[in-house]
């Protein structure tokens, strides 16, 4: 059908998901919601599946029909619906897989960012050479052009840490990731030095889970946690072997918040972490 989005972004789909949740919590079917709004049930479906946008007026009417008076939720939903920002990541459209763009957009809008990484340095902290070495191990092998596109995109994502209004960032990294000589000795040394430099910023906290920890059971805890305007609009990103999952179910978000705090509590404090990273750099 003409006018429908061919490929909605993760942010657009999140808006549709939240509107569907409001409808379901109110106990309305799509047909009943359409009748209240004076549109077809197909239009409700298109909005909820992010195939088409929704105006502020219509969104507020939907919220009123669903008896939702929570302005702390409605206001950010309106912002999501009316935001026409075309960020730097748009230059990569049709060049990189969609999850790359969705992640950059998610980070751009995040109010805070938490990372847990066990086997490699967090993407936002990676140097270009470190990222290049990682992308060089892909199977099937990437062309030089595709690899460099990914490296450049990963480096540009760091704008949320280095831009004029940086995002508060907390990273927990296992010592195993820091000891791996990704790209060789020189690349690893430069990577560790870069982490130390970035960790000096007031808005960046880096903690290390040491090998010396007597017991560490949270081996499945690797994650990206991006804060929304309210906790209900947070998002967790988890990478799998063949896909990237964006998790937004409220109960699961609570689990991941607890998991992050538990992993963070098991790690060294920031100063001890800096000392460990500094010593590792000297050992390489």
Helix content: 40-55%
Encode the helix/strand succession as letters: HHHHHHEHHHEHHEEEEHH
- Rounded mean pLDDT is 95
Poorly predicted segments: none
Work out the number of β strands: 6
Query: Main sheet?
Result: 6 strands, mixed
Cα Rg: 21 Å
**Range of strand content:** 5-15%
First-residue to last-residue Cα separation: 59 Å
Shape: elongated
Strand adjacency order, main sheet: 3-2-1-4-5-6
Secondary structure tally, helices? 13
Structural class: alpha/beta
How is this structure best described in words?
With 284 residues, the protein is an alpha/beta fold. The protein contains 13 helices and 6 strands. The termini are far apart.
Question: In summary, what is this structure?
Answer:
This protein has helices at residues 10-26, 30-37, 41-48, 56-65, 71-82, 98-109, 128-135, 144-156, 159-162, 175-179, 185-198, 250-266, 270-283; strands spanning 113-117, 169-174, 204-209, 223-226, 235-239, 244-247. The protein is of the alpha/beta class and 284 residues long. Helices cover 50% and strands 11% of the residues.
């Amino acid at each position: 059908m003409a006018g429908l989005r061919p490929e909605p972004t993760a942010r657009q789909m999140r808006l549709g998901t939240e509107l569907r949740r409001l409808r379901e919590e109110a106990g309305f079917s799509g047909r009943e919601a359409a009748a209240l709004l004076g549109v077809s049930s197909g239009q409700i479906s298109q909005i909820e599946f992010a195939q088409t946008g929704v105006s502020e007026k219509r969104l507020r009417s939907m919220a009123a029909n669903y008896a939702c008076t929570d302005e702390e939720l409605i206001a950010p939903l309106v912002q999501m619906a009316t935001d026409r920002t075309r960020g730097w990541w748009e230059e990569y459209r049709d060049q990189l897989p969609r999850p790359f763009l969705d992640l950059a957009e998610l980070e751009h809008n995040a109010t805070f960012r938490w990372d847990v990484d066990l086997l490699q340095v967090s993407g936002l902290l990676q140097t270009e050479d470190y990222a290049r070495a990682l992308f060089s191990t892909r199977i099937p092998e990437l062309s030089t052009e595709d690899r460099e596109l990914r490296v450049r995109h990963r480096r540009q994502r760091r704008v949320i840490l280095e831009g004029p209004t940086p995002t508060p960032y907390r990273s927990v990294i296992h010592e195993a990731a820091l000891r791996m000589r990704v790209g060789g000795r020189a690349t690893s040394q430069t990577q560790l030095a870069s982490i130390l430099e970035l960790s000096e910023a007031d808005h960046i906290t880096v903690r290390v889970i040491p090998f010396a920890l007597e017991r560490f059971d949270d081996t499945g805890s690797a994650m990206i946690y991006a804060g929304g305007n309210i906790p209900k609009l947070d998002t967790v990103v988890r990478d799998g072997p063949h896909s990237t999952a964006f998790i937004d179910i409220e109960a699961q978000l609570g689990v991941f918040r607890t998991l992050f705090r538990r992993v963070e509590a098991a790690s060294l404090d920031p100063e001890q972490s800096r000392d460990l990273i500094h010593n590792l750099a000297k050992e390489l």
